[in-house]
Design goal:
With 342 residues, the protein is α/β, with parallel strands linked by helices. Helix content is 38%, strand content 21%. The longest helix is centred in the first third of the chain and has 16 residues. It starts with 6 loop residues before the first strand and ends in an 8-residue tail after the last strand.
Length: 342
């Protein structure tokens, strides 16, 4: 007898004209399909969710109706929060490489997150503020669910650290009285905010968040410009276990891996490992076995060993960059509690 033939849903923004992260995700899928033989027999369904809750709702219902056993993707918080509930009702695991909103794993027991959650980034940012002597932060965000939730998490972490985080856009603050500015949101909005603040001449340090950790943000600041920081996921080049796949990426695409590559590839590496856990039975039994394995097992991936606790990857880390006239300089890496910036 053969094992259950796994059906896999892959869902995200797949149009690189919308976000450069789409290209990275699709390249991670290409590397996985080329170099993980266990994925060969699997049946994949790729769907576009548009980073939109309404579209994700339609996509999730379709994947459930199609009888998929596991889903990888939904980078957007708006999309993932909507879709996850449909998968939960059908007993389908969702492995998300890059959705950071805290509520995602708190609301559903079928979600497994490879990246650090908002609360971890917020703790890292509070530490950065303390290390730089910033006592008063002005926090702003775009109108995405991700940006708003992350801004709220940053405010909570700042207040818990004894900082003044009352100067938010919600109460009309301009940031003039703040020691530093913080913007939480998607890449395009973060880039626009940086440009707006630079043009306005507001001479304050600015901290951008995870989605802005991309070459598409900009290569350098101008001489004399206030400090610009980005707190985001560790770059694939900073992860020792990812060295072999970084080489594969360079060889296949002639470029350096960008943000989310390691997390995206790790999702497919988990999938390859999970093939062994699909029993000789129907889809309902297979789905339960996959969920149990994700809750209980440790997996070898390009991120290093991966184990989940309450849906969160243990040891998931951030990096802190300072963007200078000479380019990007990584100042610190590690879990939120361990990051120290000189």
């Amino acid at each position: 007898m053969t094992r259950h033939h796994l059906k896999v849903g892959v869902c995200a923004v797949l149009d690189s004209t919308v976000t450069p992260h789409a290209r990275t995700f699709l390249r991670a899928l290409a590397v996985a399909r080329n170099h993980l033989p266990a994925l060969g027999p699997l049946e994949f369904t790729l769907l576009e969710d548009g980073a939109d809750a309404r579209r994700a709702d339609t996509v999730a219902r379709h994947l459930v109706a199609q009888g998929v056993d596991i889903v990888i993707g939904h980078f957007s918080s708006d999309a993932a929060m909507c879709a996850a509930q449909h998968y939960a009702g059908a007993g389908i695991a969702l492995i998300t490489p890059a959705t950071t909103i805290d509520a995602l794993t708190q609301a559903q027991s079928n979600v497994f997150r490879l990246c650090p959650p908002d609360r971890a980034l917020a703790a890292s940012l509070a530490r950065l503020a303390l290390d730089n002597g910033w006592r008063r932060l002005a926090i702003d965000a775009d109108d995405s669910r991700h940006g708003l939730a992350l801004a709220a998490a940053i405010q909570r972490a700042a207040l818990a650290a004894g900082l003044d985080a009352s100067a938010t856009a919600a109460n009309g603050a301009s940031g003039a009285s703040a020691d530093a500015l913080v913007f939480a949101g998607r890449l395009a909005a973060s880039r626009a905010y940086w440009q707006y603040r630079r043009d306005a001449g507001l001479g304050k340090p600015l901290v951008l968040t995870d989605d802005a950790a991309s070459p598409q943000l900009g290569a350098a600041t101008q001489p004399g410009e206030p400090p610009l920081y980005v707190i985001g996921f560790e770059a694939s080049q900073q992860i020792p276990a990812a060295r072999p796949v970084n080489h594969l990426y360079r060889h296949q695409f002639g470029a350096e891996p960008e943000t989310y590559f390691a997390e995206s590839l790790a999702a497919f590496e988990l999938l390859a490992a999970l093939v062994a856990w699909a029993p000789v039975a129907g889809p309902r039994t297979a789905r339960a076995a996959l969920l149990q394995a994700l809750h209980e097992q440790t997996f070898s991936t390009s991120l290093g060993p991966v184990r989940f606790e309450h849906g969160e990857r243990l040891g998931a880390s951030h990096a802190v960059w300072r963007i200078e006239p000479s380019g990007w300089r990584c100042q610190a890496t590690g879990p939120a509690q361990a990051i120290q910036v000189a």
